[in-house]
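Run log, item B.
One chain of 437 residues. Sequence copied directly from the ordering sheet:
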Amino acid sequence: MSDDQKTWFGSVINLGAGLGGVLGGFPVDMFGKRTGMIVANTFLLVGYLMILLCKAPSFGHSNTQQMTQFYAARVLQGVGIGFVCCSVGNYQVEISTLPLRGAIGTCFQVGVVAGIFMVYFLGLWIRYESLSVIVLVVNAVGIVFAFTIPESPVWLLSKGRKEEAEAALKRLRSSDSQVTEILEKMESELNQDDVEESSESVIEKMSKAPRMKALMIGVGLMFVQQLSGINAVMFYASKILGTVWTDDDTVNQVAVGVQAMQFLLTIVAAPIVDKAGRKAMLTIASVGLVFCCMAMSSYYFWASTVPKGILILGFYGYVAFFSMGMGAVPWFIMGEIFHPEVKGISSAIATMCNWLLSFAITKTVDTFVKAFSTNSDPSDINGETPSGHGWLFVMYGSVCFLGVFFIRFVLPETKGKSYAVLEKELMGRNSYAEISK
């Protein structure tokens, strides 16, 4: 593959994920979260099968038919990821108890970073063909496993399938005595708007003020998450690490270590989210990302005087803060603030925005570096460091800085609150204290 083909191979999956977000919203609302997971794993399985059956062209050479198949496979994988984002996070929130909703919601991101770590680790030892076989088997197991789990009781109730919802709850709760009370509470929340909404279109349901505000918050969090520059940081990981370790094998091993750190910190963050609250975790993460972006940009601006350790410290700190807040929390907050009737379509819109932004960041990072750079060779960070990289991280740090204010003044705290309470808060009624008395 040429360098340009490699960037397209790496970024086109984001376009597929954006498409999957759009396509996934309606089926997830119509046919359920479990069905969404089955469809997601099917798309991923077919995508990896296409890669497995296609021989990659050597570097510097290309075969149009082969590259088209590679790109098509990546788009299908992306569509699967889009379906995952529309279904898994919402499913986890809907089956959780209030005290554990944050911890269980974080499991979505734990799974993501665990998969990335596994691929990085195995990639040190095996070729992509063997890796594709392993991931293909994982997706096949995922399809089988999805058939064994209960459907979301919230979704079942929204479709009037009370007996199935009760059966699902009995599988999800340790005590049958809790089921009746939980079911009545779920049914009460869902029935509040049923009479007036029974004949409304999806657009009319979506246009209600608290749901539009929830959608704006969900999309806003996706903007902060992606424009914080996570994909740019990971895109340049090998170059950043290469400033300290010049051996490629060592750089690759350290990169695997970074993924392992991301995996462990995401696990550590899971129980903290329910104790500290969503806003606190996101605020700490955003402030930390600002300082880490400043550290990395300072090295690129003044490499002759700033020690390389500052760059590495900024890089590791960036990954740590992102893992403990900005990576996981936005995804399950959507499941908390979106109304069950429009959760699929709302998640689809937010997911589409997330992955289109991810594509833009991944595909344009070199363009921004070249545009901002005063050096004739914007890719040489081991010689005279160009200012282009510095301005890039200034831009990402500025987004994180603005994100602090968005989180502080726009995002409601969702910890320990039912959707009925959150909806009233989104309508401007601070009723939590009154209801919790």
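Observations after the first pass:
- The longest helix spans residues 64-95.
- Confidence is low (pLDDT under 50) at residues 376-385, 431-437.
Flagged for discussion on Thursday.
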